[in-house]
Amino acid sequence: MDYKFLSEKYKGLNVLITGHTGFKGSWLSCILTKMGANVIGYSLEPPTNPSLFETISISNDINSNIGDIRDLPNLLSVLRDNKPDIVFHLAAQPLVRDSYKIPVDTYSTNVMGTVNILEVCRQTSSVKAIVNVTTDKCYENKEWEWGYRENDRLGGHDPYSNSKACSELITSAYRDSFFNDNSSHKISLASARAGNVIGGGDWASDRLIPDFIRSISKNVTLQIRSPFAIRPWQHVLEPLAGYLLLGSKLLEEGDKYAESWNFGPDDSDAKNVEWISKTLCGMWGNGAKYVIDENPQLHEANFLKLDCSKSKSRLKWFPKWDIHMALQKIVSWNQSYINGEDMRTITEDQIDEYFFKA
User: Fold this and answer.
1) Is the peptide bond preceding residue 46 cis, with omega within 30 degrees of 0?
2) SS3 state of residue 143
3) Which of 204, 223, 322 lies closest to 277 in space, CA to CA?
4) Burial class (CB in 10 A: 0-12, 13-18, 19+), 144
5) Mean pLDDT of the residues in the chain
6) Backbone conformation region of residue 110, classed left if phi is above 0, alpha if psi is from -120 to 50, else beta
7) Count of Cβ atoms closer than 10 Å to residue 217 Cβ
8) Residue 273: other Cβ atoms inside 10 A
9) How far apart are alpha carbons 164 and 155 in whole angstroms?
10) What percent of the chain has pLDDT over 70?
11) SS3 of 137, please?
12) 54: buried, middle or exposed (CB in 10 Å: 19+, 13-18, 0-12)?
């Protein structure tokens, strides 16, 4: 699918991205900048060093505001000053294993952060649409072999997953209570649930691909946990295309799309951790290898897939890059980074290939 038409939808719009200094937020900022949008960012400082945000110098092209999503007065001030038309809410504590270490921060950020952004949007007359980005892990995991649908029960074993289920419930409550036809300020509000997102420029801790890149750079063997755990792996550009498509529909047709939406790969691309590790090592070459960490691990779901029939049918969103292509793009991006190439150009080239070339 060619997404050139999205440039027409977003050109000249004021777009607020919370979490813009993060991995997904930096990619999204770069995409929207290329589409001609006026991007406003609100986030903490980049969460890693190095970071994609600084590597591609995206702050030069957007209005970047450093702040905590839990700081309600500051957040409200940024929205009132910049008058966004649409908001993409990505700011979160995004790591399962960290949520065991810092549960209070995880809940305060992911739960009250959602309340805060919805509340300030309610008080900002320019806002017409909001996409709240949650996660595939918001579902109550039954370890079954078929994909979860948007109407399946929410839950979450660990604090991260559970906090994102809470964020979904908050979204529903605000939509029903404050953004309906009887409200003084009607806003089209949807949530987006994506699978395991991978791509160049992710240096987060306790994630398979960044762990692989760190191992390669240090010339050590990658240690993997839960080798048979199956995840809906997808290149970061896949769900971002879905978010942008959903946002454009919310702006155009409002309530028709003000629901929850899954964005994940085709079933054939839901691979286990060991398959991903073995394939990455083969693509990278130079003797890259892995071993299985036999130490006891914190609980994480073993089997997780998404049913994306709704997004395919109603949004006409379909995955473009299969898992092999996604991994090739990651290897290419990271090898370019190691070779000292211009990473803004490399990143934009991948965006061009995905969005603007049929």
Assistant:
1) no
2) coil
3) 223
4) exposed
5) 93
6) alpha
7) 11
8) 20
9) 9
10) 97
11) helix
12) middle
